[in-house]
Design goal:
It is a single chain. β10, α6 and β11 form a beta-alpha-beta unit. The chain has 6 helices and 11 strands. By secondary structure, the chain is of the alpha/beta class. The strands form 3 sheets. It has a 6-stranded mixed beta sheet with strand order 4-3-8-7-5-6, sandwiched between helices. Strands 1-2-9 form a 3-stranded antiparallel beta sheet, covered by helices on one side. The chain is globular. The two termini are about 30 Å apart. It folds into 2 domains: about 170 residues, 3-Layer(aba) Sandwich (Peroxisomal Thiolase, Chain A, domain 1), CATH 3.40.47.40; about 70 residues, no CATH class.
Length: about 260
């Protein structure tokens, strides 16, 4: 691999995403992407006594599913990158402690899964045959962590996103049939002074655009090169802000949430 431009890595031998898995909660199972999930739960506790324990179970079973679907043994997975939204990444740490795989906990909020993909790809291309990345969140535990416990019955402002209940995992391999990770452009912190803690979309939109612009400059591509440009969950407000900012930069393309 080699660095090109300011913030982008290009892989000479692109790592392959060998297999993926996902488990989601009841709300997500009613959404437009339901058919793509491996398992949809009808109980947010999933038989556990707390939302935190439920989230640990979700990421544990999602990772086990990804490994099982890949056909590789867990012993062949050399590194695991995983994270969640809770303090000390407890969902990932407790959920994956039985894997006996070298574990690197990561935290990137909405970017955690892509951060895991990036680090897994770098590790795979450089020294490992197979790596794994995973991320999880749970609406109820996240509300307690970042906003208000649900028991208080607080009114949610219109700018608040609805945190996903679910987990995703991917096995990254040195060789395979793809899809491949060919480039990584790592974003930087762009603080435009948003003070509303509930309006995360407005806080994240400038950094999303900055990363996109940097990627296009580093690779020498234009937006029409891609079939889709997909961000983390900016929400309706954040998506509108990103689209407006992109138009000011003369980037004309349909940007998906």
């Amino acid at each position: 691999m080699k660095k090109i431009g300011k913030q982008t890595i290009k892989f000479d031998c692109p790592p392959s995403i060998s297999e993926v898995a996902s488990i989601v909660g009841p709300k997500e199972s009613k959404g437009p992407l339901a058919k793509y999930f491996d398992e949809c739960l009808d109980d947010e506790f999933w038989g556990e006594k707390s939302w935190e324990k439920s989230e640990s179970k979700i990421i544990k079973e999602t990772v086990n599913m990804a490994i099982s679907k890949s056909g590789f043994s867990s012993n062949s997975i050399e590194y695991c990158f995983a994270g969640d939204l809770l303090n000390q990444c407890i969902s990932s740490s407790f959920g994956l402690r039985g894997l006996n795989i070298p574990f690197l906990g990561i935290f990137g909020a909405c970017s955690t899964f892509v951060e895991g993909l990036s680090l897994s790809a770098i590790m795979t291309e450089s020294c490992a045959e197979h790596t794994l990345c995973a991320a999880s969140s749970h609406f109820c535990s996240a509300e307690k962590q970042f906003r208000f416990p649900l028991e208080l019955g607080n009114q949610r402002p219109p700018t608040s996103q609805w945190t996903v209940t679910g987990a995703g995992a991917a096995v990254i391999s040195k060789s395979g049939n793809g899809p491949y990770i060919t480039h990584i452009t790592t974003g930087k912190i762009v603080d435009m002074g948003i003070k509303d803690a509930n309006n995360m979309g407005a806080a994240m939109a400038p950094a999303a655009l900055d990363t996109l612009i940097c990627h296009l400059k580093d690779t020498g591509r234009n937006p029409n090169y891609y079939d889709a440009i997909i961000t983390g969950d900016l929400g309706y407000v954040g998506k509108d802000i990103l689209t407006e900012l992109a138009q000011k930069e003369r980037i004309q393309y349909k940007i998906c949430l």
